[in-house]
Amino acid sequence: MNRLASIGKVVTSLPNTTERTAAPPAERCGETEFSGTNCKTASALSILCGVILGLSAPGHDQWYLAWCAIAPLFFLIYSATSHKTAALQSLMFGFAYNFTYLHWLFNIHPSQNCPIFLKIGLVLIVCLHQSLIFAVFSRLCRSRLLSTVPLLIPLSWVLLFNKIGNAPILFGVPWTMVEYSQYKQSYLLPLLSTTGGIGLGAAIVLTNLCLYFACNRRLHLVSKNRGQCYGALLLLPLAALSYLFLKPAAPSPLSNCNLVLLQGNAVINRSGTNIKQVMDNYMALVSKAPPGSICLWPEWSMPMHFSQMPLGRISVAGLARSYQQDWIVGGLDADKLGREYNAVYAFSKNGKMLDDVYRKRMLVLFGEYMPWVISRLPFGTTKTDGTPQGESLVNGCEPTIFKLADGKLGALICLEVVSPELVTETVRQGAQLLVDCSNTTWFDTPMVGSQMLAFCVFRAAETGRELAFCTTTGPSTIVDRNGRIKLLTKLNTRIAPGERVNFYNDLTPFSKWYR
């Protein structure tokens, strides 16, 4: 009995082979060990926090939420038990954020005759496209590199959201970038001439990441290296103040002139446009503009191919000369192969149409063109409802600078103001003043106007150029080189306001380095 008892003691003292061979999930997969949360609770939290962040968007204007409402996203990413769960929760967060930001997509103007199922499909496609970027971001955050060097997380955010995920080749449009929530914060706008909106976006993400670290004391791998993020966050205000004190004084303008925005409050739909009615509408506004002004017409306000219409070209040029005004007119253009472009023409006060024609480079998906993937399907079509002729357009390739007596104008069309790449390229080509012709009759809501205004503010502050944005139904605006709004019209009004604008020739650091 004594021998059996001693053997039992030996057996019980042996290590548990099951425990020894079953390594923890983190050791087995080489992953960081994360704690789990209830799935339903996490899903509800994902949607709620995404909605809260969406309220920071222009139009909702709860700008302060951007500085704290991304922190819950990091909690969702790092508390998930697997990469799949983290990606799913991030996707729900991103979908809720984009839906709150872009819910105005449901408000397509009745003149476009868009059925409800197409509106729903449009919203789902756009929000799902953007939410997939959030899912990819979650996987990057859980990688070994970003867990070890969390300071790379804000850089990964802007690289993924501003550049890769929203690249034109992937049908992306960087509309819902978090930095646009700060368009009314005048103390931040001077920094954009160096950092651009992309730098401000990285600072917002870094602040949220540090807030997450401060609220979460669990010592998983990413938290062990949080000190580098704290240090960078403390250096940001010091660097910003140093820059503002050492920044050289703004240069004097080369020249200035009066610029008039022709907001005709006219609806342009796919059934075509009565050119005579359009001309009567806008000529009444032109007559209110003083001689010597630059008159900026909206997108498609003259839907004609002036490059192929000698008589029409001569007629409009003669009208510009009779009023002694320079006209920047939105129209259409076609090449020798019959391909059609969304275009901008310039008519000088001496009665000539300038040889250069600007062709829009960033077309609106489903509005101005159908992707080749869809158009080649058996049920696909090249027809679109967003153009005057109902046909898909072709995108242009390069910027155009209109050389007028007062200075050089860089032309943009509608959505192109959302692209800092296109705008900085236009400035590097010699634009001393930026103008954008836009057609806002697609959507019957003030939300889109507020968000377009935010884009204008950022592009002006980034490039150090004044920017005039003229729309069909408003709001239209003129923004100075520091991002301050000089003129802003009301929605759905017929008006022709004017303002003195300045021409500048210097290049900001952002215009030089950003591509």
Which band does the percent of strand residues land in?
Answer: 5-15%
The beta-strand count equals 12
Q: Could you name the ranges where pLDDT drops below 50 across 5 or more consecutive residues?
A: 10-35
Tell me the structural class: alpha/beta
What do you see in this structure?
The chain is of the alpha/beta class. The protein is built from 17 helices and twelve strands. The chain has helices at residues 2-13, 17-21, 25-29, 39-54, 71-79, 83-102, 116-141, 144-148, 152-164, 192-215, 227-246, 275-286, 310-323, 372-375, 420-428, 446-463, 509-513; strands spanning 255-261, 294-296, 326-334, 340-347, 358-359, 401-403, 408-413, 433-437, 467-470, 477-479, 485-488, 498-503. The chain has a six-stranded mixed beta sheet with strand order 5-4-3-2-1-12. A six-stranded mixed beta sheet has the order 6-7-8-9-10-11, covered by helices on one side. Strand 7 (408-413), helix 15 (420-428) and strand 8 form a beta-alpha-beta unit. Helix 9 packs across helix 10 and helix 10 crosses helix 16. The longest helix has 26 residues, at 116-141. It is globular and about 75 Å long. Residues 10-35 have low confidence and may be disordered.
